[in-house]
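[09:14] KT: can someone run the structure on this one? pasting the chain below
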Amino acid sequence: MKKIYYKKNIDLSEPESRQLLTFGDSLIEKGFLRQFSGDETKVLIYLLTHLKEDNEIEIELPLAAGALGLKIKNLRKIISNLAVTGIINRETAEGESFFNSYLNLKAVIEKKEESEQFTNVSTAGAGSEVRKQLINSNSASENEIAAALISFLPPNNRNIHRREEIKSWLNDFENKMLKELVRRVDKWLKRQGGSDHLQGAYAYLKAIIDNWYQEEITTYEKLQKQDKLHRETKELARAYGIRSFSSNTAQLKTFQSWLSGEQALSKELALAAIREAVRRKRDGQPSLKYVEDNFINPIKELGISSLADFKRWLQKEMDQKSSEPDRRDQNTSKNKNKKENKNKADKSKTKNSDENKDNYKWKDFFIDFDKYKE
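[09:31] RB: done, structure tokens below
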């Protein structure tokens, strides 16, 4: 049963208009206008609204140029480009003020269909070859990149919505980034055992795209910096003892904060700090707070920028700590001497007291003796 769709017409004509041109939304969504540049689209619309009988065109170039906001020289060039595609059957001659030709409406529709057919052929049943060709090429057009991206989808899922989605990526990201995206997802697909397309490949691709939007990575240079940060973060995680992790864990966010920002440390300094913390905490894994408080923050505060400076600072810290027990020993020795002196004084005092007692006894004896003598 044939479906009946509600059609809404928007009329931009004036009472004196003699020709009306209707463009359907489905035609636009299928990429009809994508095959023409902006100026070519303007000229094509002008030609379509100035047709005579049997699709004959007769326009006055100065008037057309003025209406479209183009220079006559540029208008001639655009008409020549349209003539090459077969949409019109002749070019403009130099010095002509009037242009007479015929518009080939069939060629306009066929050009659209050829564009769709090219995309379908490029992506049907040969996705791995399309991607391989793109990855190995030194430069690639947007059409080639789009064909490689959509090749990760099964043929029955390659609808207009996916094509529009990919088109938006082409506008938002550099071609070099999208080419790198194809390489990464193709590599992942091969590891999963798929050669052409596989369930989940496009979801994996979209996850990468979503991350780029979230991190505002829109240039290849920014992508390289992000990749470097990710690699270095994984190295710190391994040095700390993490083997299996997700890039969204709090620990990895902490590692990234050490390597980024205004006081970013080099990977080598951060690794040295972690290793020194692990060495000192022989009884177990040090907490990240311990690493930060004892190494990362002092490194930033002191402006340490090289491993040599870091080693000198560690040596200085060790020397200071080694001198602290000596002072404690000195204090212990002093306390011991004081105690010994006090003990001697107590003994001396006790001895004197005993002598005084003895003297007193002998004195009493002599007194009694004297009495006895009397």
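[09:33] KT: thanks! The chain has a mean pLDDT of 76.
[09:34] RB: yep, looked fine to me
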